[in-house]
Design a protein that fits this description.
The complex is a heterodimer.
Chain A: H1 2-38, E1 41-42, E2 51-52, H2 56-62, H3 65-95, H4 101-111, H5 118-128, H6 135-142, H7 157-181, H8 186-194, H9 199-210, H10 212-226, H11 231-234, H12 248-257, H13 262-293
Antiparallel strand pairs in A: 1-2
Chain B: H1 2-36, H2 41-44, H3 59-67, H4 70-101, H5 107-116, H6 122-135, H7 142-146, H8 153-164, H9 169-176, H10 181-189, H11 194-210, H12 213-218, H13 227-235, H14 242-276
Helix pairs in contact in B: 3-14, 4-8, 4-11, 9-10, 11-14, 13-14
The chains are: A mainly alpha, B mainly alpha.
């Protein structure tokens, strides 16, 4: 009896974690390995008659202009969106750290787009920037900017979508930064004030070092998500005009679900995975090195 | 000294104006969209465009209902948001609880495995995942929509942190009273971490309600679409039917707007903890 009880006691924790472990295995880990496997096949959406092609898909990627274009668009997104978002959120948070009513209201407003889906964000901004019905287009016309083609210009549409993305997520970064800044010990600021350090000096020498782990966290997550951009492109331009907003994930989507080349799309996914892995490792080692220096 | 004070005040006013301007950029499009969904068609396309309308009509909603199966979209979104979130948070709590409160062989290895899945971006695995789920016969089904979303590494991680801090006496008292291990979890331990539980439910509902990619891939039938992918497909790349588009966005945003108004604290807490501790 006692032995039986002890056995069932040992099994308890395993039975508690079994459901999620099985689900994670089937729906996360297995698909990751399948992506590598599929990338060596020429196979359609029905999975009938798969043809092993070795590394041919990767060779094709190498000569595929549309792949290089989507990689360039994605890198451009990283270079434009991440610094803008991080700096904007950092400055706003530094000025909104104190918990008074006005600051709370502003933070609440900035955070609000968290409830907007990419679909809602897309519909809303497309219509408010629309050349016929748009309210902002109208306001701009009054002050002399006539007929800017926001949604259909190979030059500026990309930046309009980057703006939408920042609009939707900067409040999240602000809330996380404020949370970290409120944890910086008050005594450090008092000591800095004794040394006659101005507000800017305090920001650079007390606030920034005080929130370093959070700053790295935001930078890493924003970097990674800049390589995952899909939703906001799908709901606004679909990658156009003239592929100027076609990101890597958008390109993967079109390969898989418009021309049904599952193997080729998986090969591009594998490239995406490797890029994200490298970026994570590089920024992570950067973080560890920097932490050591402090 | 007086000059410095004036400078100080001027600076404060300037900063306030910048903040207010950014707040307007966030709020104006949302308000304009909400109001415009009740405007008559003639007013929507009139020049100059209006901000506030004098005439309120439900016509846009009626036209939307004629064009797409909007009630199905709403129903599917509700099912997806609830069924992918509530069972998920229960199972992830159970796992987080086991990782936090039991000592067993392989605990650390399995926990690291869970954390490692955080590094797998959905966009990388979406194609094999689609192939696996549809070949299990779950294309266009609620099960296929929900099942891959149940196990969430970050939820397990947050629940583990929440359970780790609880005093040991809680379990001991329960075990002496002869409560079963599962009963211990549900009746004694889970109520202790209710704030984290509610936070994960609120964030999960918001995330699933707004999720676009997975429903887009795994549903094809008009009657299986959620608001997020159904409306995205309806509006398309070139919006022509402005009124119904406004109405659809209104229906899509309203429930989450209400959730935010009543549960803002959970949104903030969840975001801060997943950010600072994660």
């Amino acid at each position: 009896m006692v032995n039986k009880n002890r056995l069932s006691m040992t099994l308890v924790p395993y039975s508690f974690i079994a459901p999620v472990i099985i689900l994670l295995f089937v729906f996360n880990i297995l698909p990751l390995f399948s992506a590598f496997g599929l990338s060596c096949f020429d196979v359609s959406i029905t999975l009938e008659q798969p043809k092993f092609v070795g590394l041919d898909n990767f060779a094709e990627i190498f000569g595929d202009n549309r792949f290089w274009n989507s990689l360039a668009v994605t890198l451009k997104w990283t270079v434009v969106e991440v610094p803008l978002q991080v700096v904007l959120a950092l400055l706003l948070s530094a000025l909104l750290t104190q918990n008074n009513l006005v600051n709370k209201i502003f933070r609440g407003i900035y955070f609000l787009p968290i409830v907007c889906s990419a679909t809602v964000t897309g519909i809303m901004w497309k219509l408010i920037l629309h050349s016929n019905v748009g309210y902002i287009t109208y306001l701009l016309r009054i002050i002399g900017f006539d007929n800017i083609n926001f949604m259909n210009s190979p030059k500026i549409t990309f930046f309009v979508i980057v703006f939408m993305s920042i609009w939707k997520t900067f409040g999240i970064s602000v809330v996380i930064f404020v949370g970290a800044m409120q944890n910086v010990p008050k005594s450090l600021y008092e000591a800095a004030e004794m040394d006659n350090a101005g507000k800017l000096r305090q920001f650079l020498s007390v606030t920034i070092p005080g929130i370093m782990p959070t700053l790295w966290f935001i930078i890493i997550t924003r970097l990674i998500s800049s390589f995952q951009v899909f939703d906001i492109v799908y709901t606004t331009t679909g990658g156009g005009p003239n592929f100027s907003t076609e990101t890597l994930v958008t390109y993967i989507y079109t390969r898989a679900f418009e021309v049904y080349r599952m193997g080729y799309a998986s090969a591009v996914s594998v490239c995406l995975f490797i890029i994200i892995l490298i970026i994570t490792i590089v920024t992570y080692t950067g973080m560890l090195k920097q932490e050591k220096d402090y | 000294m007086a000059v410095k004070k004036i400078q100080h005040t001027v600076l404060h006013v300037f900063v306030f104006i910048v903040f207010a301007f950014i707040a307007l950029i966030v709020l104006v499009p949302i308000l304009w969209m909400l109001i415009s969904s009740f405007k008559p068609q003639g007013e929507i396309i009139s020049y100059p465009p209006t901000f506030i309308s004098e005439e309120f009509t439900l016509n846009n909603f009626i036209r939307l209902a004629k064009r797409v199966k909007i009630l199905y979209f709403v129903k599917n979104s509700i099912i997806y948001a609830l069924m992918s979130t509530v069972p998920s948070v229960f199972l992830c709590s159970l796992a987080g609880y086991a990782f936090a409160r039991y000592r067993f062989k392989g605990r650390n290895v399995l926990f690291i495995l869970v954390l490692a899945t955080l590094m797998i971006p959905f966009q990388v695995i979406m194609i094999p995942l689609f192939l696996i789920v549809s070949n299990l016969g779950m294309y266009d089904s609620y099960l296929g929509l929900v099942l891959p979303k149940i196990a969430v590494a970050i939820s397990i991680f947050m629940m583990r942190s929440a359970f780790t801090g609880l005093p040991k006496e809680l379990e001991e008292a329960g075990r002496i009273d002869g409560v079963s291990e599962l009963g211990l979890f549900f009746k004694i331990m889970l109520p202790q971490v209710k704030p984290t539980f509610v936070t994960l439910v609120v964030l999960g509902i918001n995330g699933a309600w707004n999720d676009l990619t997975w429903p887009l891939l795994i549903t094809g039938d008009m009657q299986m679409r959620t608001l997020s992918n159904g409306l995205a497909m309806f509006v398309g790349e070139d919006t022509q039917e402005y009124g119904p588009a406004f109405a659809g966005a209104f229906i899509s945003i309203l429930p989450m707007l209400l959730l935010y108004l009543f549960g803002q604290r959970y949104f903030v807490e969840g975001t801060v903890t997943s950010g600072v501790k994660g």
